[in-house]
Every structure is written in structure tokens, then in C-alpha cells.
Amino acid sequence: MNKKNTIYALSSVYGKSGVAVFRISGENCIKIISKFTKLKKPKDRRVCLTKLYKNKKNNEIIDRVLLTYFKGPKSYTGEDCIEISAHGSPAIINALYRELNKSKLCIEAEPGEFTKRSFENNRLDLTQVEAVSDLINAQTESQRNLALSHLEGNFSKKIKNWANDIKHILANAEALIDFSEDEVPHKIMEKNSKKTKKIINEIRKYLNDEHAGEKIRSGIKIAIIGKPNTGKSSLINYLAKREIAIVSNIPGTTRDIIELNYDIRGIPVIFYDTAGLRKSSKRIESIGIVKSIEKSKLSDINIIMVENTREMRKYNIKEKNKIFVQSKIDKKIRKINKKSVIKISSKTGYGITKLINQIYKLIKFKRNSYDNPHVSRERHRNQLILSLESLEKSLKSNQIDIKAEEIRKSYINISKIYGKYDIDEILDVIFNDFCIGK
């Protein structure tokens, strides 16, 4: 482990609070404890009540705090760490900042530096580092569960198992190139092909997941579309429980897309109120209409506001991705006589629960077990696809050197998901599995 500056940061939010937490990491942790407290020998992973001193000689106290010492490498960063829980007043926080800076024993951490050190010291892999960020930003139950699953290593464990199998296949292929048939196990090529096909089938099946993880992480996109004055803005205002969109009888009132983040039984969704679809000679409104059409195409679900059955035929959208809604049923209007059309009133709330239930039916995913974790980022999916493609190419080639090269590419790409690739691992497998060079 490289020697680096000892770093510190306020880990809680700055401001007035019950508790403010400072985190310190690096080789000067013991010196910092010695300078600011009268603790003689801090015990690993023991919380102790102590005084932080500005000047120990004069007994000038900054605050009475809870201090926990974590001896490396069994800490978050893999280095010696301290966590200080002080009273959360701005005066105490500012005093701690000043005294830590004056000590010259540590410097203020950059954003993400604690987690970066955790990755560099092999405490977390890259998928877990990403999960820390996702967990901090989680707003719904499904986002929390997904991030925790990745942080626990469930996703990287699955990826590492495939990577380990591909590494062994590569080791076999390299052995066939470098050594004679008498020096390697019998029918090794046949075994390699069988293992490769098995991994290909597993990855294909795994990727056939409706992009559930990415959708949970970023939110299910739901566009509310339709002609002007069909109740689009009234619906989004009702869901928001406040006026986020201007409601007016004047066509073209909504010109830009308005977003609403919403939680449906723990699943994050984003509603988009769009400009009314009509022919318009007004330039600004026309731009809004083009944006509405684009948002409709990119959305996972479209709520289509209609006034009659004739309008329903105009929308060429896949059946599973659309919900027809007739609004304003609190008024004297001609109701659409179709069960597939949900009738609502954004004034009284009638039918809104039925609409939310229908949305939930469409956004439930086939694979919702976090023991079999979702791919949660486009980066993960792209690397898996590249790895899969290389494995498929290796099967098609009859030349062992080309096979080996494609398998190597597959291993490199899948290893990039969790952030490690080392050619020495391949050599270790060759020597251990085949006892070459004893």
C-alpha cells in the first residue's frame, strides 16, 4: 500500500444538527488522536467518549465527542481510520476544520477520495464503489435494495464467477499453444467448447432482463401525451399534490416538458407532462410538440389522454407500453364505452388509484429477486455484451491462437466490470492446473 497524505472530511451534512461526523484516514491517525485527546492507546473498533482539545496544556476543549479508531487494513479505506461524532453546531464544525488544518497532520479530502482509497486498497471493487454512490442517491425502496445488493457484492460475485471460468478456459487454450498434446489433459479442446457454450447461454439469459436494473436505478419514464386540453397538466398536478404545471383552456399553454419524480410501491418513476399534440404555426409551441413526440418514443410507458375512441387509433404505440385515459369525468362529458380506457378526474381523484395500479402492473419485472441481482448500469451491460461476443467468436474459429485471443478479449472485458485484469493470473492457472515446470 502506497503512503499517502492523511485525509479528513465532514461526512455528515454541514449545518445545524444533533451530530456531525468527521472521518479521517491515513497513517497519521494515531498522531492526530494523541494531539487532540488524552487517550493513551485507542482500542481498535471501540467507541470511546472523550474530549477534543484545542490546547491540551490549557485544557481548552473543542467538544466532548464519541471517537472510534479503526486499525487498517480492516477499515473502510484499508488504512488507519478515525470517526469522530461531535455535536452538530456550525461553531464546533468550523473549529474542528481550523484545528485539523493547523495541525499539518492531515489535508481535506477530495470528493469521493475515501471510497477511491477503498478501491485502491482492495476493500471494494468497482461495482461496489458505484453501489456506494447509488445507495447515497437512492430515493425508493427498490433503488435501496438494488444498491445494497451490489454493495454486498452479489453482482460482482456473479461476474467474477464467469470471469474465473473464462480465465480457466483461456489457460487451457494458452497451454495448447505453448505445449504438446502429451503435456496437457485429454480432450481439452472439447471441454473448452462445452464450458464456453455454458457461459454464453448463462450470460444471454442474464441479459434478457428487460433492462430492469437500469430502469430501477434511473427511474421508469412515463410520458403523458395527447391533444391540448385533455387533462395532462391537471393529472401531473394531482400526482404532485401541488401546481407544477400551468392549467389553462388556452391550447398550447404547456410548451416545455415538465418532470415529476414519483414512487409507486418502491419503484421510481418519472412522469413527463408534454405539450399538446396538434398542428401549430407558433414556432415555440412547435418545438415543444416535437419534444413531446421524442419523449413519447423514449418513454417506457405512455399515458395517452383521449376524448373519444376515434383518437385512440392515431397512436401507433406497442400495446404493453400504453395506457388510454379519459379525464374530466367529473364534468358532463360523453364517456368512452371501453374497459381498456381508464376514466379519471384530476379534480376529485376518481380513478387515479386504478391508473396507478395499471402502471404498476406494467412496470413489475420478471426478475425481482436481489439474490440474482440486476445489471444496474449501461457500462456493465456493454462490457457483458462485448465479453459475450468474443466468446461466440472463439467458438466459430478453428485456429487455436485466434480462439485464445478472443477468449482473452472476453476475459479483459468482463474483468473491467469490477475493475481488475491481471495477466499473471492466467500464468498462475497454467502452472497450478498443469504442473508445468516442476
Care to give the gist of this entry?
With 438 residues, the chain is of the alpha/beta class. Helices cover 45% and strands 18% of the residues.
Written account of the structure:
With 438 residues, the chain is an alpha/beta fold. The chain folds into 3 domains: 7-120, Gyrase A, domain 2; 154-209 and 373-434, Four Helix Bundle (Hemerythrin (Met), subunit A), CATH 1.20.120.430; 219-363, P-loop containing nucleotide triphosphate hydrolases (Rossmann fold, 3-Layer(aba) Sandwich). It contains 15 helices and 12 strands. The chain has helices spanning 29-36, 90-103, 113-120, 126-137, 141-151, 154-178, 188-207, 212-218, 232-240, 283-298, 309-312, 352-363, 378-396, 400-418, 423-434, and strands at residues 7-10, 17-25, 47-55, 60-70, 81-88, 107-108, 220-226, 258-264, 267-273, 301-305, 322-326, 341-343. The strands form 2 sheets. It has a 6-stranded mixed β-sheet. Strands 8-9-7-10-11-12 form a 6-stranded mixed β-sheet, sandwiched between helices. α4 runs antiparallel to α5 (141-151), α6 (154-178) packs antiparallel against α7 (188-207) and α13 packs antiparallel against α14 (400-418). The protein is flat and about 85 Å long.
Question: How many β-strand runs?
Answer: 12
Count of spatially separate domains: 3
Give the low-pLDDT segments: 250-255, 433-438
**Biggest sheet strand line-up:** 3-4-5-2-1-6
- The helix/strand series, from N terminus to C terminus, equals EEHEEEHEHHHHHHEHEEHEHEEHHHH
Structural class: alpha/beta
CATH topology term of the largest domain:
Rossmann fold
User: What is the makeup of the main sheet?
Assistant: 6 strands, mixed
Strand proportion, as a percent range, falls in: 15-25%
Integer average pLDDT:
84
CATH architecture assignment name of the largest domain: 3-Layer(aba) Sandwich
Q: Kindly, what is the distance between the CA atoms of the first and last residues, rounded to a whole number of angstroms?
A: 32 Å
Broad CATH class of the largest domain: Alpha Beta
The percent range for helix content is 40-55%
CATH superfamily of the largest domain: P-loop containing nucleotide triphosphate hydrolases
Question: Oligomerization state of this entry?
Answer: single chain
**Count of DSSP helices?**
15
Shape descriptor reads flat
What is the radius of gyration computed over CA atoms, rounded to a whole number of angstroms? 30 Å
